[in-house]
Design goal:
Layout: E1 3-6, E2 15-24, E3 32-37, E4 43-44, E5 47-49, H1 56-68, E6 70-81, E7 86-91, E8 94-110, E9 118-124, H2 126-130, H3 136-147, E10 153-154
Parallel strand pairs: 2-8, 6-10
Antiparallel strand pairs: 1-7, 2-5, 3-4, 3-9, 6-8, 7-8
Length: about 160
């Protein structure tokens, strides 16, 4: 099961995992697309692990397609996250410091649906998201996107 572990410089000695996530708004610009993970039952922004041989924008687009069925155009980079005090643990043998790139993404096609990684998907208001069991580090990403800054944040 995927979980996050907090601690002062807990990532020291861990492997590094690079990934990307997507901030996708509904056509009204009032609701955000979230997926429910199959491995831990938590809600999150679409995204995932970078594969060698692709750009980080390609990672973002591929992960959105794999998890939601949507074809997207990756836009502005909202933020880069490199918290050395937050360890991603799949089990005792697979623990990582995450380096994550969070992008604004526009839907260009496809059909919203589920994948083998997701058990639910949908657009939700900020009020609804506040009541959901959301992956804790994704809350910061949503908040950063709401700031509407033109410059990329580095966290």
């Amino acid at each position: 099961m995927t979980k996050l572990i907090h601690g002062d410089r807990i990532c020291k000695g861990a492997d590094v995992l690079v990934g990307a996530s997507a901030q996708i708004w509904d056509p009204t610009g009032e609701k955000i697309l979230l997926t429910k993970r199959g491995d831990n039952g938590l809600w999150c922004l679409p995204g995932g692990q970078h594969d060698a041989g692709e750009s980080i924008k390609e990672t973002c687009a591929r992960e959105v397609l794999e998890e939601t069925g949507l074809i997207v155009e990756v836009g502005q980079l909202i933020a880069v996250y490199t918290n050395p005090n937050l360890l991603l643990s799949y089990n005792e043998e697979h623990q990582f410091q995450m380096i994550s790139f969070h992008f604004v993404v526009a839907v260009k096609g496809g059909e919203l649906g589920l994948s083998d990684e997701t058990t639910d998907v949908g657009f939700f208001s900020l009020e609804e998201i506040g009541e959901m069991d959301l992956m804790e580090h994704h809350q910061q990403r949503i908040e950063d996107a709401l700031l509407g800054k033109k410059d990329t944040l580095v966290r």
